[in-house]
Design goal:
Layout (H helix, E strand, L loop, with lengths): L1 H21 L3 E9 L4 E9 L10 E5 L10 H10 L6 E6 L4 H4 L15 H20 L7 E6 L1 H12 L6 E5 L17 H4 L1 H8 L7 E7 L14 H15 L8 E6 L6 H16 L2
Parallel strand pairs: 3-4, 3-5, 5-6, 6-7, 7-8
Antiparallel strand pairs: 1-2, 2-4
Helix pairs in contact: 2-9
Length: 285
Amino acid sequence: MIKKTFSLLTILLLLLTSVCCKRKIKQQDDEIYSRHLQRHVKLTVITTPMPDDKNDLNLLILNDGQDIGKWRVKETVDSLYRKKLIKPLVIVAVHAGDRMKEYGVAGYPDFLKRGDKAGFYDDFINNELYPFAKKNATVRKFKSVAIAGCSLGGLSAFDIAWNRADKIDKVGVFSGSFWWRDMDDKAPGYSDAKSRIMFTKLKASRKKPGLKYWLYAGDKEEENDRDKDGIIDVVDDTKDLIALIQSKNVCLPGDIKFIEDANGKHDYSAWSKQLPDFLIWAFGK
């Protein structure tokens, strides 16, 4: 009788362990060779438990995947998923190569020729990473796809989302480098209206991408204030971008969310505090 009871308890424990393992958030490292970037690209992949219907699975592509620990992505996803606040999700975090070359605005290097490989990075995301993510998740199509990044990675994420709105539904920008410009801001002839690269690109664009936008900026990120209006550049640039998007009538007013933190600094401590809000906005139940 004791042996039978012990056996039953053992079976129950094994079943419970199996169920718990299946319900855990998983994180693993991977790698893909990119012909566009001509290098092996390291990836960190985080997955929630798979839904019964894989049509319910969502994808988030993150820039600067090498800093995923500083961003507390796994811990945040685990907490939100356990509280049933987000839908089933796969996160593919791309470890950066040469950030100053691969991040930027595709086809528009800045005045120091930085970002000259941004077009190749865009092609990598579109032609290589996206198919890789689908194949790994064994899905034909994700229910929704978002891309996000911080600082220069945020500028890159915004540009890729704008270019690839046929695949990407939402974009998250944490302290985006929308100051990215085609001439030094101290040079004669510089103006915010004509020299900020992303603004020039959007003004000339005839696209009407069906995107949703989540943007964040902190009031203590820097001290630079080009136009001397008492508002630091990262906040000014972000608000200007939102106004430009709204003026182009490419989305509904409710499709843009902007968060401004009076105490926010330009670091992962500030960005990790905003991550739950972004994830719930992008993938909330």
